[in-house]
Structure prediction request, 539 residues.
Amino acid sequence: MSEDHEARQGTGVGGIPPRLDVRELSKTFVATKALDNVSFWVDPGEVHAIVGHNGSGKSTLAKVLSGYHKPDGGWVAVDGAPIELPARPKELHERGMSFVHQDLGLIGHLSVTENIRLTAFGRHTFRINWRREEEAAAATLSRLGAQIDPRTVVRDLAPAERALVAIARALQNHRAGAGLMILDESTRSLPRHALEAFYGTLLGLRAEGTSILMVSHKLDEVFAVADHVTVLRNGCVVASCVATRELTKGDLAKLILGVEQAEEVRTRSAPTSGTRRVVVTGLRGPEVDGISFALRESEIVGLTGLPGSGHERVPYLLAGAAKAEAGTCVIDGSSVSLAGCGISEMLGAGVALVPESRADEGVALTLSIGENLTIPRVTTRGKAYLTGEEWQKREIEEAIAALHIIPPDPHRAVGLLSGGNQQKVLVAKWLLNRPTLFLLHEPAQGIDIGARLELLRVIQETAAAGSCVLLVSTEPDDLAALSDRLLVMSDGDIVLEMQGPLTADDVVNAIYDSTREEQVDGAPFEPAEPVGEVRHGHR
Prediction:
């Protein structure tokens, strides 16, 4: 805990305690330390941003504050009075705390009034006075300057209007000049043209004296509305309560990304020429604005950028896990239209994806190691009512040995493994498909050093065997260790390409350059040619 924070505890500014005071908050999931002695404070009438790359602990922090998770230890106070942990909804409500989560939590088929007043009406009567409830909803919306008919069905609203309804629901019990609203990446679904009005709403609440804790991945958003920012990296606070006026966007990018000494991995000869096995043209979708690029046989291409730049969306659009609006992918001469293409079609074309969230999207925690490893191929290698034991046994043994999965027990439930071994199972499951294009989104995130080195080695060996690898990450050390080329995205476009070998500093500086107001000028990117400005690393 910083000396500044120590001095502020219990006193705040001018003798007024902080609206929110968080001290040494920790949370562990199995072997992963999601929060590690996190401390910061939020003053009355300020917008405070919590930022960090994916997996840094931002959403875990929000869930601890909302009472969803019980912390291992720590202390939280609102206006100087401690809150019992895990937090109880009733107490949070009484203290003036409210939450707007990523998905907004609205019920689409209900009216605006019903969504706003759902937890408020009908407490003392057997009949709902709909006129009174609509007036209450309208009064809260008016406080936000929102011109929304309370009788409108929520699913018929524009995204920006739905966000205002969610904020109105959270705000309705706040006294002017008091309270704390926590926004957990609540602007993720808002189109760009709606953001300015949304930010104006937040600044209006701040002017009333309401405090706002904003969990965000958008640097533009932080500098648009936040007074102070706290940066998390790997569950730890690396910068606490820093005034945004004292930072540049590049400063904040470096705090978020960090640079650590990369462990050495076995070097290999990177392909500088050869067959282009994968050519992506005109890929367009959410946050991705018609990008094109190519991968050669045995090439590892890193794709990165600041949070919200669009790079995180690319692997899901290519794998058919998210709906692409346009684009084609040519794999070994066979063309696939990406618009409307699904997961099964892309698997059939030779594409495999290791998603970022292994627990939600990657592995089945209640199934065994063996079941997780073989389930993608049961329908293609097995027969009806007879999945086949011999091929499954061979694949399971191969995967456990190749990635040193511990314990090497094919019958153990994946949920009982460490995070690193769960990740090994996830990577191995799709490697057994022998993919032509292997898509990896933050494959080494949140795992121990030993597991990380194993995965880096396996990724290199996969490329050396002929696969094309697209590594999507914000980890400078991983990108530097693996990438033969690095593509940097900003605002939905590829703006910079670097040739390897690279250092972690090269990667950080390339991402920082993508935040400059004046971007590199260049012709539209063609798969056979580099994009924008080509640079070389300094290894």
